[in-house]
Amino acid sequence: MSLTDPHYLILQTDQVSLGPDFFWPRALVSPPDLAPGIPLGMEEGRPVIALWGQDWWPGPWTRLREVFPQLPPHRWKLIARALPLLNWRRTHRFCGVCGQPMQDTEEPLSLWCPSCGHTEWVRITPAVIVLITRGDEVLLGHNRNHAPGVFSLLAGYIEPGESAEEAVHREVWEEARIRLRHLRFLESQPWPFPDNLMLAFRAEWAEGRAQPDGQEILELGWFSRDHLPTLPGRGSLARRLLETWQRGELGPS
Ligand SMILES: [Zn+2]
Hints:
The protein is α+β, with helices and mostly antiparallel strands. The protein has three domains: 7-91, no CATH class; 95-123, no CATH class; 125-246, Alpha-Beta Complex (Nucleoside Triphosphate Pyrophosphohydrolase). The chain is built from four helices and 15 strands. The chain has helices at 64-67, 73-90, 164-176, 237-246; strands spanning 7-12, 15-17, 24-25, 38-43, 46-52, 62-63, 103-104, 110-112, 119-121, 125-134, 137-143, 154-157, 179-191, 196-207, 217-224. The longest helix has 18 residues, at 73-90. The chain starts with 6 loop residues before the first strand and ends in a 7-residue tail after the last helix. The structure holds zinc ion. Zinc ion (ZN) binds at residues 95, 97-98, 100, 113, 115-116, 118.
């Protein structure tokens, strides 16, 4: 093994294959031609290459949501960059304009069509999430995609033509039939399932009786700090915001 040999980070949809030292050494990996690597810079003096391992890598595989809370932030950052890039490349192998195969460019964020000259840039999908309070209570919803009994903050995708703030107001009206006031931005976090950028807000309830839409949100409720239901897993932005609020450290709204 030479010092310039890459080590591999092997991923698929929502899973990572954890190697002997987090990465897999070159000696143990023979990626097929159809799994082109994405360079992720240097780690511990050696180049890191991300690979999409579905259909050829035997594993073992671990669900990312399970390892996320244990990973140091710099490892998680690598995964959060690699997954959207890998996903995007495998779903953009052909030109959306003329249908011919796309080619690599000099950097991993774009692909180029030699047939018609179209350049395609990697996409991230912005979404909003909002912590809504009414006095000492927080509004939480049970989404149809949540595990039974799990409640979380309301969230949704930003639509074309919307500001992030408009998206919060629309989503909350659609999902809960309430109006907000004092909406303000808190922080953001990449969430690579597959390519989201979560923009977190907080707001106060202004008017309306919270009613679930029955489509996406099946149950809604106002919960006090001392009686929170089962929350989403550690590592999620929703969980972190709720714990910060529960400790009284989110500040006044
Ligand atoms: Zn083309």
